[in-house]
Recover the amino acids of this structure.
């Protein structure tokens, strides 16, 4: 049983601390809310040039954090094995959030134009890396035409020996100083509006990542989505397997998700002390200051039993009247995972915030009611579906006809609904009218191809008996049912 119960005011701390909307890509996060998972140490290391993560896993977060001297200092303090230091040179090769007028890299329209001019994508990215090294390591004015990107790329192609010598010199300088130069690439889904062009660009960037592995200190580093590098078209070049074998995934195990939550609550400017004092009461552990940031005791980061004590002091021990309904600490992340069990921290925090916003249960002795936690998952599911609509608009077209269906079910039942609603024809019409710019990769394979694409996105889950299941984080938001499961979200409530 739990001895300590957080006062009801902890609800206000949660609502004040946790972000209200979805994070904006490219914004450098507030340092006090910058949680640095120990499991991400390998992903941040300069030698990890290919970092993969689902939507909301932290790719753009780290892209932004690594650009900040103050944040790199914090990373160096908390994750010394990451080999990231305050003096690490960091520049941008592509991403969202930095003005393109800075000239660091071409924007999407320029990239598409360069491809239309038959310029090799590998040369495009190589020129961007070269420019960053010249400007930020050698501190030299450009020795090539400095006007249009096409001219820069053609110069780099035409002067291979000079380019090679300058890169080698820069690498030696960095090595003598004992520092790395990272050139960061993010938001690769924003490089084009069609798959063939995007595939060419991503393949070219992967080739550059592999090429620069031979350097000691110059490190292009790309943050990518899993589907971008699982596509055979993007990895169809010699030795791609060597690069993919060294890929590092941004994963958020349960302990890291709760560590992130503690970081927000413990650093809430007005009443974070209420949470920190409660932790001391429960675990007899003190928070410490690093600069202006409160850092949690190590046990609150890695010890599941310690985390469970804290969370259950807010929620109570059970997801119902007894233990048979499960335990809030494990129940919440279990119901937010995709078909691979991966949970995005954005979904997790959204669920917690919605739980706190829900009307409190009269006479319930804990601050957060278990039925409110279920409604928090509903909210997180709706947000996850909206994110999917942004990234892959075609998914909504094929999921709408399935509203009301109960899963697990035979795939034949899904195909029947698609046929009744002429779903594939409607999808093809949307693609031909340019309403859908990034169609499913296997559309030409019919129903089975669409199934494969949805499975690759983590929405469909193929069971051992070949039936189709959906993880709750998608099932609820898309309006499908499961006997005894969390109630689905009405489709008209979010359209």
């Amino acid at each position: 049983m739990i001895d300590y119960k957080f006062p009801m005011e902890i609800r206000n701390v949660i609502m004040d601390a946790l972000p209200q909307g979805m994070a904006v890509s490219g914004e450098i996060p507030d340092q006090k809310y910058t949680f640095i998972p120990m499991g991400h140490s390998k992903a941040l290391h300069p030698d990890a040039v290919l970092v993969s993560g689902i939507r909301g896993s932290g790719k753009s977060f780290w892209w932004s954090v690594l650009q900040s001297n103050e944040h790199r200092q914090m990373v160096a303090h908390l994750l010394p094995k990451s080999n990231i230091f305050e003096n690490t040179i960091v520049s941008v090769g592509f991403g969202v959030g930095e003005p393109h007028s800075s000239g660091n890299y071409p924007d999407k329209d320029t990239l598409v134009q360069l491809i239309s001019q038959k310029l090799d994508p590998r040369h495009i990215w190589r020129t961007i890396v070269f420019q960053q090294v010249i400007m930020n390591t050698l501190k030299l004015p450009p020795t090539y035409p400095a006007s249009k990107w096409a001219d820069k790329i053609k110069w780099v192609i035409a002067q291979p020996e000079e380019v090679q010598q300058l890169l080698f010199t820069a690498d030696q300088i960095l090595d003598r100083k004992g520092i790395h130069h990272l050139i960061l690439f993010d938001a690769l889904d924003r490089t084009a509006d069609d798959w063939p062009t995007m595939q060419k660009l991503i393949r070219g960037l992967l080739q550059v990542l592999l090429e620069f592995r031979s350097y000691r200190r110059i490190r292009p580093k790309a943050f990518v989505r899993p589907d971008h590098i699982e596509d055979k078209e993007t990895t169809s070049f010699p030795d791609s397997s060597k690069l993919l074998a060294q890929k590092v995934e941004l994963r958020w195990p349960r302990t890291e998700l709760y560590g992130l939550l503690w970081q927000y609550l413990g650093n809430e400017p007005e009443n974070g002390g209420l949470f920190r004092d409660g932790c001391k009461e429960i675990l007899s552990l003190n928070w410490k200051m690093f600069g202006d940031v409160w850092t949690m005791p190590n046990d609150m980061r890695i010890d599941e039993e310690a985390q469970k004590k804290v969370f259950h002091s807010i929620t109570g021990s059970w997801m119902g009247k007894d233990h048979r309904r499960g335990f809030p600490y494990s129940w919440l992340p279990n119901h937010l995972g995709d078909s691979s069990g991966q949970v995005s921290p954005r979904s997790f925090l959204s669920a917690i915030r919605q739980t706190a916003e829900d009307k409190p249960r009269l006479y319930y002795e804990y601050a957060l009611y278990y039925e409110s936690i279920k409604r928090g998952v509903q909210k997180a599911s709706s947000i996850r579906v909206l994110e999917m609509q942004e990234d892959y608009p075609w998914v909504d077209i094929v999921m709408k006809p399935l509203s009301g269906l109960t899963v697990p079910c035979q795939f034949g039942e899904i195909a029947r609904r698609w046929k009744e609603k002429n779903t594939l024809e409607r999808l093809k019409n949307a693609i031909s009218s340019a309403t859908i710019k990034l169609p499913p990769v296997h559309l030409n394979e019919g129903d089975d191809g669409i199934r494969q694409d949805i499975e690759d996105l983590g929405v469909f889950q193929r069971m051992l008996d070949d039936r189709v299941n959906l993880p709750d984080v998608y099932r609820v938001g898309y309006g499908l049912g499961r006997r005894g499961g969390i109630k689905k979200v009405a489709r008209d409530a979010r359209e």
The chain has three domains: 38-249, 253-386, 392-493. The longest strand covers residues 218-224.
